[in-house]
Amino acid sequence: MNSKIFKLVIDNLEEALNLPKYEDVTSNLNEQTTFEEMGITPVKFEKFKEDILETMELDAKIRWEGTIASVVDQLDIKYSSMFFGEIWKPQTEMYSYTGWALVDEVKKLNPKAVLDVGCGYNQFKERIPNLTGIDPYNNMSDYQVDILEYANVDEHFDAIIALGSINFNSLEDIRVRLANCNKLLAKGGKMFFRVNPGIQHKNGPWVEVFEWSFEVAHNFAKEFGLELETFKQDANDRKYFVFVKPA
Ligand SMILES: C[S@@+](CC[C@H](N)C(=O)[O-])C[C@H]1O[C@@H](n2cnc3c(N)ncnc32)[C@H](O)[C@@H]1O
């Protein structure tokens, strides 16, 4: 879950429910609290919704019902869609290891199938044969899906690249996506990553960037039984690393 958006929702709910009769509700607000059980008045509820969308500068239809978690997830998806679909632009040429140099690294493996997770504008499609690009928010992708929705595909990839894309929200959000990548990776295959150590996007204040580090990569390698083959500093304070799946 996006903890920045969660905090925004909680802060605004506390303001909307700032009366003694709501004390029990406000002191127990959590991800699973439902809007139905809060008993918020219609006028306050309208203002709460408007304030959230205005603060996030978001023009989107949200189903303001069910749990706080479900509303936070919808806001996160709509915001990411706006940011990654319309605002964010690639800077591939600036990277020493995770830019165009990666094309040769991947091609060295002579892969029969390559998956680009969070491919953005799908820039590697033309340069690496047999590449499928997936991205939930960019319509230049081959399939507009989150890696989580791509998990049951009955295909194994010799190489998977994930450049700045498995980098959002909580450690658990990262873990489930890495687990799915690992499932899709063929034995002896490699996963190439560019990760951001937590530098927030200037024009995307509501995107929560996870704080990747060498230690986190090392721990995940251990957890998934992978070898951490390379770990290098790339431009823009991004990190480059490669996981290898034993043959
Ligand atoms: C920093 S951009 C990098 C795009 C591309 N890999 C590149 O280097 O040009 C991050 C990308 O990850 C995508 N993304 C965000 N959440 C994702 C998820 N859960 N699964 C797959 N891609 C995701 C975004 O839509 C965006 O295109």
Description:
The protein is an alpha/beta fold. It has 2 domains: 3-85, Non-ribosomal Peptide Synthetase Peptidyl Carrier Protein, Chain A, CATH 1.10.1200; 92-244, Vaccinia Virus protein VP39 (Rossmann fold). Helices cover 36% and strands 16% of the residues. Strands 2-1-3-4-6-5 form a 6-stranded mixed β-sheet. Helix 1 runs antiparallel to helix 4. The longest helix is centred in the N-terminal third of the chain and has 20 residues, at 68-87. The chain is elongated, with a radius of gyration of 20 Å. The chain starts with a helix and ends with a strand. Bound molecules: S-adenosylmethionine. S-adenosylmethionine binds at residues 80, 84, 88, 90, 92, 117-120, 123, 135-138, 146-147, 163-165, 168, 177. S-adenosylmethionine (SAM) binds next to helix 5.
